[in-house]
Amino acid sequence: MEISSKEHTHFFSNNTVVPVDRSSFKSESSASKERQSCCGGIKIFLGALSFVYFAKALSGSYLKSTITQIERRFDIPSSLVGVIDGSFEIGNLLIIILVSYFGAKLHRPRIIGAGCLIMSAGTFLIAVPQFFMGRYRYESFPSTVNSTVSLSPCLQDKSQTPLSALEKSQAKINAGCEKEAGSSMWIYVLLGNLLRGIGETPIQPLGITYIDDYAVEENSALYIGCVQTVAIIGPIFGFLLGSLCAKLYVDIGFVDLDSVTISPKDVQWVGAWWLGYLIAGVISLLAGIPFWFLPKHLPKPESRKDSSTSSEHSKFIIEESKDQRASYWQQAKLAEMAKDFLPSLKNLFGNPVYILYLCASIIQFNSLIGMVTYKPKYIEQQYGQTSSKTNFVIGLINIPAVAFGIFSGGLIMKKFGIGVLGAAKLSLGSSFFGYLLLLSLFAMGCENSDVAGLTVSYHGTKMMTDYEEALFSECNSGCWCSKNDWDPICGENGVTYVSACLAGCQASNGTGKNTVFFNCSCVGTFDSSQSSSAVVGPCQKGNECPKMFLYFLVISVITSYTLSVGGTPGYILLLRCIKPHLKSFALGIYTLAIRVLAGIPAPVYFGVAIDTTCLKWGSKRCGGRGACRLYDSSALRYVYLGLTLVLGTVSIFFSVAVLWVLRKRSSPQDETLSANGERGACGTKSRKDNFVNTDQLIQSTYWPEKETRL
After folding, report:
1. Which of 515, 540, 565 is the last residue of a domain?
2. Does one domain contain both 228 and 362?
3. Which residues of 494-512 are buried (b: 16+ CB within 10 A; e: fewer)?
4. Which distant-in-sequence residues (6+ apart) come within 8 Å of 410 by Cβ?
5. In the predicted model, is pLDDT for residue 425 greater than 50?
6. Where do the Major facilitator superfamily (MFS) profile domain residues begin and end (predicted)?
7. Which of 26, 125, 543, 651 has the fewest CB atoms within 10 Å, counting from its CB?
8. Is the pLDDT score of 677 beyond 50?
9. CA-CA distance, 699 to 691, in Å (whole number)?
10. What is the model's pTM?
C-alpha cells in the first residue's frame, strides 16, 4: 500500500534511524526490519532491567527484615547492626563516580551484568557465616532426656552436680570460647553488604540512561515509570520472604526441632535468616544473565538523532561540530572540564532554595532511614510481636501505602497543574501532617512486662534500684545463680523471671518446651495465694497490648502514605529552581549528600540511642556484652519516636524557609502564570517543557531503596 510522502516521513522519524550519508529512501521491508530491531531490543532491555530492579529491591528490603535476626545470631548490639546496614551506602559511594563517568564509554549492558554478579556474590557472602559458625546456642535449662527424673534448677550446693560434670562443662565452654575469640563472623555480613552496594551502583545510572538514549522520546518516561513500579514490588516480596524465613528455626535441617526449647516469641529466637539471602542471591544472579547478550548500542530513533541532544547542555561538555561528536569525550580536556567546576559549585550553593531544600532533605532522610531501619525491632519489643508477623505486616501494609502515596503525589501535581510554589506547599504539608500523626504514637505504647528484678521487685513493687543488684533476693539467696543468664520462665502469677534458678525453683519435670518447674520460692513469695510453679518462656504482654498494636498499624499506614505524598512535589521543587545546565550536577550533589550524611550515619546513631534503653544484656560465652535481651518499653518508645520527631521537626523548619524564600522571590503574577503553565517562581521556562524534562530526571535520580524507607 502506498502512503503519502508526509506520512512516510513521519513514520520513519519516530521509528527508524536514517544515517547521514545514506539516502532517505528505503525499502519498506528494510525499514520495518530496523524498526522491529530497535523496538524489540529496547523492550528486552526494559524487561531485563525491571527484573534487576526487582532483585535489588528484594535483597535490600530483606536485609531490613533480618536486622534483629542478625543482631541475635552474632550477639552484637544495635549500633553495630547499624554499621552493617550503612555499609551498603559505603560500597555504593566507593565507585559511583567511576561508574557514572566511565560507564557511558563502555558496554553498559555488560557492566550492569557484572554488577548483578557482584551483587549476587555479596548476597551469598552474607549467608556464609551460618555454615562456619556451628549450631546456634541459646541459654536454656538443661532438661533431662528421661522426663521422670527431676532436676533442681536452684543449685543449693555444687555437690548436687558431680565435679567431673562441672569440669567437663567448663572445658567445653573454654573450647567454644577459643573458637569464637578468633572469629568475628559478622564482618562477613558487613563485607557482603558492601559488595551488594558496589554491585548495585551501575544498575540505576547506566540502565536509566540506556533507556533514555534508545527509546522513543515520548515513551522514555513510560518505560522508566514501569521500571520504578516493578522496583516498588520488590520490597513487598522482600519483607514477605523475611516473614517466612523468620518462622523457621535458624538451624533447620541440621538439628532436631523437637529439642528446641524456645519459640518464635522468645527474644532468643533466631529464624533461618540465611535462607532468604541464598534465594535473593540466586534471583540476582539470574537477573544479570540477559545483559551479557544485549548489544552495546541499539539503533536510535530518527527523532532522537535529528533533535538536539538534550535541552540541558552541561557546561562541562565542549560543543563541537557534528563530525567530531562521536569522539568528543576523547578530545575534551580535563583542565577545561575542571575549569568550570568550582564556579558551578559556587553557583549551586549560592542558590538559597537549593541549599535550604538540601538541608531539609538530609535531615528528613535521617529521620526516615533511622525509623525504618529499626521499625521491626520497635514492633517486636514494644508490642511483643514475632519477627515473622512484624515483617509480614510491614511488607503487606506499609510498603503498598508508600507506593500509593508516591503515585498520589504525582497525580495531584498533574491534575491540578501545581506550580513550584504549590509543590513547596504540598511537600511542606505532607511532612507537617505526617509527623503530626507520628506524634500520636507516643500514646499507643505498651507498658513494660513484669520481670522480677528488672521492671518489678520480687515483692511486686516497681523497680527503683540498680537492676543487677535487684536480681538477687531473699527468695533465691540459697541458690547458686548467675546474673548473666537469660533463660526466662513465666510464673503462674503472671511475672517473668530471668531464669528458673533466680525464681528459686527446686524441681523440674518434662523436656524441651514442655518443661515445668515446681516449688519456685520466689513465685510463692510474690503472691502467696498462687501456685509456685512456672513454665518455659516469658509471659505475654498486657491485655491492652494487642489493641494498641492495632491502633499503631492504622496510624503507621496513614503516616507512611502522608509522608510519601510529598516525595514527587519535593523533587519537582528541586529541579525547577536550578539552572538547566546545572540540573545534573545538582542532582548528583543531592544524591551524594543524602547517602553520606543520612544513609550511612542514621542507622548507627539510632542504634546507639536504642542501646541506651536496654535493661538486660546477654553475655557471650567468652565474657563481654552480647545482644540486648530486654528493653525498657517506655524509654524505647520515647527514644525511637522522639529522635524521629525531633529530626522531622527540624526538617519542617527548613521547608518553611524554602517556602518563605520562594514567596519572597515571586510575585502574585508569577504565581498565576505558574498555575497556568507559563512561568514558575524560580524563573523556569514553560511548564510543559519542565514536566517533560523533570519526569525523566526524577525517575533517573530515584533512590534505589526509597520504597523501603517508610
Report:
1. 540
2. no
3. ebbbbbbbbbbbbbbbbeb
4. 568
5. yes
6. 45-666
7. 543
8. no
9. 12
10. 0.78
